[in-house]
């Protein structure tokens, strides 16, 4: 898809679809050019430190405030509360794994209606915590838009190419890419196949499926590199934000859906939410190609912690501790000597939700399929299955490239993640015998004889 982008992460961008739309001085002139309205959208408090402050000025045909009253919008699979007493929650410390997920009636759904909550922690009202969702849909949103007052949404496609329309322009997001749409920004998610078909407004397309990490506090950032130095991991220049593009269909009715306190609300308006002719600021949605990640690893022995695979992080108030890290496991060379090379057995103080985008993850011999997922909650022991352990323990330790043609990801969090009843009972995809993956691990211990 031939779309134009602006490169950089956290940059101050300026873009105008019509020349002369941006003010020559200031942000809110008495009379903006071309009869536009100036509107600011804030991603942080006005008084946030300068290096943290995020906001954008939009120059639009109609102001966002011009809409009909709010009304509830019913949704059966989005969960508002992750407290243990919530009727939608079935929390467990058990190691969990799902076969490739899908929503049974996905042919009836667009992106919003096709969202299903798998789990989460915290409370969006006090802006602390996260939620993990799965999406499954075949229909375009057409004249329907969505914005999230609860948090930022990181979208990870697995099946189907996405066209994400935003107030700032359009993003093409196929598998092996991600996109982030921040709190309060309006967007629509369509399948590219349906978008390009003749007369395809709202028409059925091949299924689009993937995962969403929603963070209630702060925003995703690039992780600090520390001793790694100036280069490595995800480079800021490889992130792409849209250039301005606008709709001018003031006679067409649009439906706007808002996620607020875990629930959904809707209103109608007689103009497109994508009528922004120009914008200026650093609060802008973006996409990233995961294949551009610069993987770091050991060239002597052992292997560093999986934090070296972090693409984006949403930090908590505790230094070095994340509300959510977005981590990937791309194809990479393993060369470490005298080292068990797959991920070792461990009990983590973080919770690990993993998803498989494509191929075979090198730490699991079977059962972890593209479109599938796993959850190893805080302090739940996990590691390679019996077959992977046996193979890795006896392999010749020569340089080898693992993960060719594969890509898995992880949402890692310092929170205990409460799973939903949909994830545990209603999805029909939970592997009931996942616990057996480790039962074939044999006893190898031989007590040493007495010292001479």
Describe this structure as you would to a colleague.
The chain is mainly beta. The chain has three helices and 28 strands. The protein folds into two domains: 5-89 and 102-290, Jelly Rolls (Sandwich); 294-431, Jelly Rolls (Sandwich), CATH 2.60.120.10. Helix content is 4%, strand content 35%. The radius of gyration is 23 Å and the shape is globular.
The major sheet is characterized as:
7 strands, antiparallel
Q: Strand content of the residues, in percent?
A: 25-35%
Shape: globular
Across the major sheet, the strand order is 20-13-10-15-8-7-28
Number of helices: 3
CATH top level label of the largest domain: Mainly Beta
Distance between the termini: 74 Å
């Amino acid at each position: 898809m031939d779309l134009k982008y602006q490169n950089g992460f956290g940059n101050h961008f300026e873009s105008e679809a019509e020349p002369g739309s941006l003010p020559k001085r200031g942000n809110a002139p008495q009379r903006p050019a071309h009869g536009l309205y100036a509107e600011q959208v804030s991603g942080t408090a006005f008084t946030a430190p300068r290096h943290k402050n995020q906001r954008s000025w939009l120059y639009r045909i109609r102001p966002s405030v011009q809409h009909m009253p709010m009304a509830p919008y019913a949704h059966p699979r989005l969960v508002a509360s992750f407290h243990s007493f919530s009727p939608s929650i079935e929390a467990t410390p058990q190691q969990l794994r799902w076969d490739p997920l899908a929503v049974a009636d996905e042919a009836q759904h667009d992106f919003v209606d096709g969202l299903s909550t798998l789990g989460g922690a915290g409370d969006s009202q006090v802006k602390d915590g996260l939620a993990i969702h799965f999406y499954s849909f075949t229909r375009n949103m057409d004249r329907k838009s969505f914005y999230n007052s609860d948090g930022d949404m990181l979208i990870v496609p697995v099946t189907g190419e996405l066209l994400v329309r935003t107030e700032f322009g359009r993003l093409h997001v196929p598998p092996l890419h991600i996109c982030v749409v921040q709190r309060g920004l309006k967007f629509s998610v369509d399948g590219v196949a349906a978008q390009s078909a003749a007369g395809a407004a709202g028409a059925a397309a091949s299924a689009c499926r993937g995962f969403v990490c929603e963070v209630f506090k702060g925003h995703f950032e690039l992780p600090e590199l520390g001793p790694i130095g100036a280069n490595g991991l995800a480079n800021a220049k490889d992130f792409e934000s849209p250039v301005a593009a606008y709709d001018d269909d003031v006679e067409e009715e649009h439906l706007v859906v808002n996620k607020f306190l875990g629930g959904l609300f809707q209103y109608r308006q007689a103009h497109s939410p994508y009528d922004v002719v120009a914008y200026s600021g650093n609060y802008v949605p973006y996409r990233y190609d995961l294949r551009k990640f610069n993987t770091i690893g050991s060239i002597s022995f052992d292997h560093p912690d999986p934090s070296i695979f972090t693409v984006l992080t949403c930090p908590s108030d505790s230094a070095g501790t994340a509300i959510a890290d977005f981590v990937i496991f791309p194809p990479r060379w393993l060369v470490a000597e005298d080292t068990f090379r797959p991920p070792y057995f461990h009990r983590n103080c973080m919770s690990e939700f993993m998803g498989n985008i494509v191929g075979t993850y090198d730490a699991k011999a079977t059962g972890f399929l593209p479109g599938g997922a796993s959850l190893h909650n805080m302090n739940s022991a996990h590691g390679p299955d019996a077959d992977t352990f046996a193979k890795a323990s006896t392999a010749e330790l020569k340089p080898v490239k693992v993960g060719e043609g594969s890509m898995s990801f992880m949402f890692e969090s310092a929170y205990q993640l409460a799973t939903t009843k949909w994830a545990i009972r209603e999805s029909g995809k939970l592997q009931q015998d996942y616990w057996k993956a480790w039962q074939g691990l044999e006893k190898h211990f031989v007590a040493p004889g007495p010292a001479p």
